[in-house]
Amino acid sequence: MKVNIQENFVKLLDLKNKLIGNFSNYQFKDFGKSMFIASKSGTIGANVILKKNKIVIVGNFPTIGGRILFAFCIVLFGIIIPFVIYLAVFQSKFSKFEKELGAVVQKEFGINK
To answer: Could you give the 3-state DSSP secondary structure of residue 17?
Structure first.
């Protein structure tokens, strides 16, 4: 999910604090200068990336171990089987979590186009 913002208007710490205030039951971990990871559970999370004029929220596994395990499954079983499992089990949960975070980000920082 992409949320358009005014250029250089939002600071990463402000964005993170606003999400922590709205979702106190979720975990938020820094991951670089312009990104942090929001975790709903051990398997459902999202990367929140702050760019110059937009905020990008991408559903993903919240732990490095989960990402490595998924990549290992792709190498071990090929592309089709892990992809079907990903679509059946995780895609809808990631999408729902993206929209949940994106609604707050859009409300607080977004600009209408």
So the answer is: helix
Contacts of 34 (CB under 8 A, 6+ apart): 12, 49, 50, 51
Average pLDDT over residues 3-30: 92
Count how many Cα atoms sit within 13 Å of the Cα of residue 57 in the half-sphere of its side chain.
26
Query: For the chain, what are the domain ranges?
Result: 2-108
Q: CB of 109 within 8 A of CB of 16?
A: no
Beta bridge partners of 28: 38
**pLDDT band of 110, cuts 50, 70, 90:** confident
**Is residue 55 classed as helix, strand or coil in its secondary structure?**
strand
pLDDT number for residue 95: 95
Nearest to 16 by CA among 53, 44, 57: 57
Q: pTM of the prediction?
A: 0.87
What pLDDT, on the 0 to 100 scale, is given for residue 71?
A: 93
CB atoms within 10 A of CB 7: 10
